[in-house]
């Protein structure tokens, strides 16, 4: 039986990478050190043009799915914030002038919201 010999290396990484490493390790429920070892292995494999193992591909796919879900949530929150801003704008306009009925205000809110989505390129 062949014994694996380990060599110790010290590296310095920027604080932002350290934060990302710790967050990713926490999500995977492993230590930052264990994730750093995986990152080194994956990096060396990619540099040596070795095909990535199925476990690595599965991890990447899982992370892409997580990012996609978070992006979808951020899009919903952004749209909601834009809608609320449009509502505040229309109500402020209504408060400045003669009182309008709720149906008209709702129509104006939706029109302002549609205009802002169009300007943002999300029509």
Give the helices and strands as they follow along the chain: HHHH
The helix content is over 70%
Rg over CA atoms: 25 Å
Task: Choose one word for the global shape.
Answer: elongated
Give unreliable regions as ranges: none
**Number of helical elements:** 4
Instruction: Determine the structural class based on helices, strands and strand pairing.
Output: mainly alpha
The largest sheet is: none
Q: Tally of extended strands?
A: 0
Terminus-to-terminus distance: 64 Å
Content of β-strand: under 5%
Mean pLDDT: 83
Structural descriptors:
single chain, 123 residues, mainly alpha, 4 helices, 75% helix
Structural account:
This protein is mostly helical and 123 residues long. The protein has a domain at 72-123. Helices cover 75% and strands 0% of the residues. The chain is built from 4 helices and no strands. It has helices at 15-28, 32-47, 54-96, 102-120. Helix 1 crosses helix 2 (32-47) and helix 3 packs across helix 4. The mean pLDDT is 83.
């Amino acid at each position: 039986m062949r014994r694996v010999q380990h060599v110790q290396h010290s590296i310095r990484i920027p604080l932002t990478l350290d934060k990302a490493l710790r967050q990713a390790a926490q999500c995977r429920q492993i230590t930052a050190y264990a994730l750093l070892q995986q990152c080194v292995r994956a990096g060396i494999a990619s540099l040596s043009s070795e095909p990535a193992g199925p476990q690595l591909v599965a991890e990447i796919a899982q992370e892409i799915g997580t990012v996609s879900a978070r992006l979808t949530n951020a899009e919903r929150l952004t749209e909601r914030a834009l809608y609320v801003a449009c509502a505040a704008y229309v109500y402020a306009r209504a408060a400045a002038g003669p009182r309008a009925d709720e149906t008209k205000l709702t129509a104006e809110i939706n029109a302002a919201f549609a205009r802002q989505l169009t300007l943002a390129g999300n029509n």
